Amino acid sequence: MQESDLTRQPTTDPTLIYRYRDAIYAADLLATALVFLDFFTWLHANPSDLRQICRHFEIQPRPTDVMLTLFNAMGLTEQSNGRFQLTALGSEHLVRSSCWYLGPYYASLKDRPVCKDFLAVLRTGKPANWGSFKDEKSWAQAMEDSAFTDQFTAAMDCRGVYLGAAVAKAVDLNGRSSLLDIAGGSGIYACAMVAAHPHLRATVFEKPPVDKVATNSITSRGHGERVHVIAGDMFKDPLPTGHDVHLFSNVLHDWDESEVLKLLATSYSALPRGGMLIVHDAHINADKTGPLHVAEYSSLLMHATEGKCYSLTEMQHYLSKTGFVETRYRPTAASRSIITALKPG
Q: Which residue of 40, 93, 141, 176 lies most exposed, with the fewest beta carbons within 10 A?
């Protein structure tokens, strides 16, 4: 691949194609709530907050939050003063006593592996196996296997060719000299950044065996002189110093709140004064009513990882709590966005 490939945009918009893949598990989560929990019938009679819902159904807060955000975005529920209740759409079609009840229409889906997985994720809070394969390890463990790593990294790499160029275009890096791409996968985002900002150099910080995949990919794109790879574990090892920009691209959504805060604190410690943090991800809006396509994607993440799509309000809180200031939000491409923040000078 040539450097110019990462500075170009396609002539057509692939957003819908991204959304078809990202939304693939959302219907299964709806079916799980409807068929296994009879969730909407209960909520119709018992408008409740998140804690009350979790207590009644004996389900865990993280997956329940994802589920409720999805139903808000679908127009099935709404929230007022912290309490969730059904909308007219949800009341007419998802409550067992209604003559328009659609429960039996979804009942035939209950034996789908993803539906069964979602029930277990809701009850335990723990992610299911990747792709619902029963002989597959959890996502985090599977990433230690070379074959899975190659496949997964290739998937993220092809996505990043389009998304990376949009990130690079959205952020002002004038006066910045060096970027650290934390858990940067194939290095596609680091390559896109240096392609769009000729003054910039970059380092990808990634665990083995992904570090070798990144080295090969970066070299094949012709960026080996400006993008380097350092092997390390972002949860165990100190981040390399000497970089005035940090990038978390599609990373934080894989982890729960405590791990997100840990990663942000690690970045804050390693950045110099005045350093910039870029969080590139799909973000839920501030009041958790959508966008629908991001709420659908969050269902996939909740199923397979320890995380979810975080809302703007949550991310702003986490960044402020860590010490970052001047938080700004910008949309990029395919329902993704960046949040930038600075370490005080």
A: 141
